[in-house]
Design brief:
Length: 206
């Protein structure tokens, strides 16, 4: 929760800074470097996770049904949003949904990939939408975990958490869905985490 609010505050400060002060450096070039650093950190994070081997030993193909359901549901409702929002295409909305609560990576990646087709202004707007939408998803999953679990079942908080089911939302999932859901939540988060750059890139190029 605090991390999401901090990201939101930094974003607002960045907007205010951009409105009143002109940057004396190439913002585009720096955002590309940030994107590369994010991709590197993802690899380091996954590679340094000592629990992967432990959970891999308990792996069952039935566990794949949860991330499949997460991806399918997210894409379905993202596509429906694309049919309602006239400014953005279905694929633009699906690219936003492909962040799965990974707001930092998805927003930067979308801005970079959509700039050639949309121009810097519209690409930045879409990246901003991705940032806010994925922050909102994370905060909704964090605050609404008990209600989500009660209404939709023990797997629902895992799907709602997206990539955060393996870290930030894990305590809530353990508390409301049960400790036996921890392996599923970790595997779900890892698989969704890896899928984000691939799905975002795919839909941005459609």
């Amino acid at each position: 929760m605090k991390g999401s609010l901090l990201i939101l505050v930094c974003f607002i400060l960045g907007c205010l800074s951009g409105c009143y002060h002109e940057a004396g450096f190439d913002v585009h070039a720096i955002s590309v470097i940030i994107l590369y650093v994010l991709m590197l950190l993802i690899g380091i994070s996954l590679g340094s996770n000592r629990e992967i081997g432990h959970f891999a030993s308990r792996f069952s193909f039935k566990m794949l049904l949860v991330p499949v359901a997460t991806v399918s549901g997210t894409f379905l409702f993202s596509a429906l949003a694309g049919l309602v929002l006239s400014q953005w295409s279905v694929f633009d909305c699906m690219a936003v949904g492909s962040g799965f609560a990974y707001y930092s990576l998805s927003s930067v990646l979308i801005t970079q990939l959509k700039e050639p087709s949309l121009g810097m202004q519209l690409a930045t707007e879409l990246g901003t939408i991705a940032l806010l939408a994925n922050i909102f998803r994370e905060m909704t999953a964090l605050l609404g975990a008990p209600v989500i679990c009660k209404l939709f079942g023990r797997f629902a908080p895992i799907s709602a958490a997206g990539v955060t089911s393996t870290d930030l939302l894990l305590p809530s999932i353990s508390r409301y869905s049960g400790q036996e859901m921890i392996p599923i939540a970790v595997i779900h988060g890892l698989l969704i985490n890896v899928s984000v750059p691939f799905f975002v890139s795919f839909f941005c190029r459609m």
